[in-house]
Design goal:
Layout lengths: L5 H63 L7 H29 L2 H25 L7 H76 L14 H60 L6 H27 L7 E3 L1 H18 L3 E6 L6 E3 L1 H18 L9 E9 L8 E8 L27 H11 L3 E5 L8 E8 L2
Parallel strand pairs: 2-4
Antiparallel strand pairs: 1-3, 4-5, 5-7, 6-7
Helix pairs in contact: 1-2, 1-4, 2-3, 3-4, 4-5, 5-6, 7-8, 8-9
C-alpha cells in the first residue's frame, strides 16, 4: 500500500484541483475558438459567397429582362454585352473566393465547396455558350443559367442554415460540458478541502492533548495509528507523555521515600537506645533465672525475642532511610540467580516449594551493584514463597528465569529476570499500593521490601514490573528489567 506524507497528500490534492480547473479552462477556450471559427465561416465565408451569388442573380435577371423586353431599343446589344462582361468578371471573383475558402476551411466544408466550384465552372461554360449565340437564340440558355444560379443560391442558403444550427447545437453542448467541468472542479475542490481537513484534524487533537499534558494530565494519549507524519508525531507524543508520567511517578515516589525515610530515621534513632537497654536488661534477667524454669524466665526470654524483632525492624528502617547509591559494576545475572538458588534451596525446601530455573543462554552482563541487586532478588523470591504458603505443598511451584529483551530494531537492549509463583495472585486494584512504603498484607510485615526493591531497580536504570493474576485467575510474576552494558 502506498503511504503518502501530509505534504504529498496536500500537493496531490492541489494538483487534482489545478488539473480539473485547467481542463475546464482549456475546454472552454477550445469551445470558444471553435464557435468563433464557425461564426467566421458564416460571416466571412458563406455569407459573402451568398451575397456574390445574389449579385450574380441580379445581373442575370437584368440581362433576361432586356432580352425579353418587347420594346428593344437601339442600344440593346451594347447593354447586353456590358451585362455579360460584368457577370463573367463577378463569376471569376466568386470562383477565386471559393478557392480561398477551400484552402482555409475544414474537409467537410471543402467537399461542399468543391461541388459549388463544379457548378460555377458549369455556369462559366454556359455563359461562354450563350455569349456566342445571337440575342434571340440566347434566351433559353440565359434561363438555364438563371436556374443554375438559383440552385447554387438555395444550396448555399441551406448550408448557412446548417452551419448556424450546428453552431447552436455545439454552443449548447459546449455550455453543458463547461458547466459540468466547472461543477466537477468545484466538487474536487470540496473533496480536497475535506481531505485536507481530515489530514490536519489529528494535529488539532494533538494540540489539545499537549495542553492537557501541560496542565499535568500525563495520562493523556492520542490516537496514533496512521502511517504518515501525524501518526509518527502522535506516537512520539504518547512516548513523551508516558516518559513524563513515569518521571512524575518516580519524583513523587522519591519525595515520598525521602519524607518517610527521614521520619523513619528519627523514629529509629529515638527507640534504638531504649531497645538496646531493654534487651540487655532482659538478657541479664534471663541469665539470673537460668537455673529456674519459672514464669519469670519465660517472660524475660520473650522480651529478648521481641526486642530482637524490633531491632530487625529498626535496621530495615535505617536501610530504607540511608539507601546508598549503587556502585555499578559488570555483573552476571545467571551466575547470581544460580547462587541464590543454592543459598535458598534448603529454606524453600522446608516450605515445600519446588523451584525451576529457566535461564536463557548467552545472557550479557549488566551494570549493577551486586549486593543491592542480590537483596532485591532475594526479597522477591522469599515473597513468592510466602505467597504460596496456603496452598498444598504439591502445588507450590516457583520459576526463576532470565531472558533477553529489546531485540527489536528500535528497542533498548536489556535482560529480564522473572520470578513466577502460582499463588492466589494480587488483585489489580492493589498493584499500585504494594509499592507504597509501609503497605503490606503479610502478618508482621513492614511494607518496605517492595518499596526498597523498586527504588533500587530505578537507581539501576531499570524497571520492576508486576503482572497478576496470570492464568485461571492465579499466579504472580515480578519482572526485573535492566539495560545491558
Amino acid at each position: 500500500m502506498l503511504r503518502l506524507s501530509i505534504r504529498s497528500k496536500i500537493l496531490l490534492g492541489f494538483v487534482v484541483v489545478l488539473l480539473t480547473f485547467g481542463a475546464a479552462t482549456v475546454y472552454g477556450a477550445w469551445a470558444v475558438h471553435t464557435l468563433g471559427q464557425q461564426l467566421r465561416l458564416v460571416a466571412l465565408g458563406y455569407s459573402n459567397l451568398r451575397l456574390e451569388l445574389q449579385d450574380q442573380q441580379t445581373i442575370q435577371a437584368n440581362l433576361q429582362r432586356r432580352l425579353l423586353d418587347p420594346d428593344k431599343g437601339p442600344r440593346l446589344s451594347d447593354e447586353v454585352a456590358v451585362d455579360r462582361k460584368l457577370r463573367q468578371v463577378r463569376l471569376q471573383t466568386t470562383q477565386q473566393h471559393v478557392d480561398e475558402l477551400r484552402r482555409n476551411l475544414p474537409i467537410a466544408d471543402a467537399l461542399f465547396l468543391e461541388q459549388v466550384q463544379a457548378r460555377l465552372r458549369a455556369l462559366s461554360e454556359l455563359y461562354t455558350v450563350t455569349d456566342s449565340l445571337p440575342l434571340p437564340s440566347a434566351v433559353q440558355g440565359e434561363e438555364q443559367a438563371a436556374r443554375l444560379l438559383q440552385q447554387l443560391s438555395s444550396n448555399l442558403t441551406n448550408k448557412v442554415i446548417e452551419v448556424v444550427n450546428a453552431g447552436s447545437r455545439y454552443e449548447a453542448r459546449a455550455g453543458l460540458l463547461t458547466v459540468g467541468l466547472a461543477l466537477m472542479a468545484t466538487l474536487c475542490s470540496l473533496v480536497v478541502l475535506l481531505l485536507v481537513q481530515a489530514t490536519l484534524r489529528p494535529l488539532r487533537r494533538l494540540s489539545d492533548s499537549a495542553k492537557e499534558v501541560a496542565r499535568g494530565n500525563y495520562r493523556e494519549r492520542v490516537q496514533a495509528d496512521s502511517p504518515d507524519e501525524v501518526g509518527e508525531l502522535g506516537r512520539e507524543f504518547n512516548a513523551m507523555a508516558a516518559a513524563l508520567a513515569e518521571r512524575e511517578e518516580r519524583l513523587r515516589r522519591s519525595e515520598q521515600l525521602a519524607a518517610v525515610g527521614k521520619m523513619a530515621a528519627q523514629i529509629t534513632h529515638e527507640i534504638r537506645n531504649p531497645l538496646t537497654s531493654i534487651g540487655l536488661n532482659a538478657e541479664l534477667l534471663a541469665d539470673d533465672f537460668a537455673d529456674d524454669d519459672s514464669e519469670a524466665r519465660k517472660i524475660a526470654q520473650a522480651i529478648v525475642k521481641e526486642v530482637d524483632r524490633l531491632t530487625d525492624i529498626t535496621e530495615q528502617y535505617l536501610r530504607f532511610a540511608r539507601l546508598p547509591e549503587p556502585r555499578l559494576e559488570p555483573a552476571e545475572v545467571n551466575a547470581m540467580l544460580t547462587s541464590l538458588h543454592g543459598f535458598l534451596q534448603e529454606e524453600l525446601g522446608r516450605r515445600g516449594v519446588t523451584v525451576t530455573l529457566a535461564l536463557a543462554d548467552a545472557i550479557p552482563k549488566v551494570m549493577a551493584d551486586d549486593n543491592q541487586l542480590r537483596q532485591v532478588l532475594l526479597n522477591l523470591i522469599r515473597n513468592a514463597a510466602e505467597a504460596m504458603a496456603e496452598q498444598p505443598p504439591s502445588e507450590r511451584k516457583l520459576t526463576i528465569g532470565s531472558r533477553l529483551t529489546g531485540t527489536g530494531p528500535q528497542e533498548r537492549p536489556g535482560i529480564a529476570v522473572d520470578i513466577i509463583d502460582n499463588g492466589p495472585g494480587i488483585p489489580k486494584e492493589r498493584h499500585r499500593q504494594i509499592f507504597e512504603p509501609f503497605f503490606t498484607t503479610k502478618k508482621g510485615g513492614t511494607g518496605l521490601g517492595l518499596a526498597l526493591s523498586l527504588e533500587v531497580i530505578s537507581r539501576h536504570g531499570g524497571q520492576l514490573v508486576l503482572k497478576s493474576p496470570l492464568a485461571e485467575g492465579r499466579g504472580t510474576r515480578f519482572t526485573v528489567e535492566l539495560p545491558t552494558t
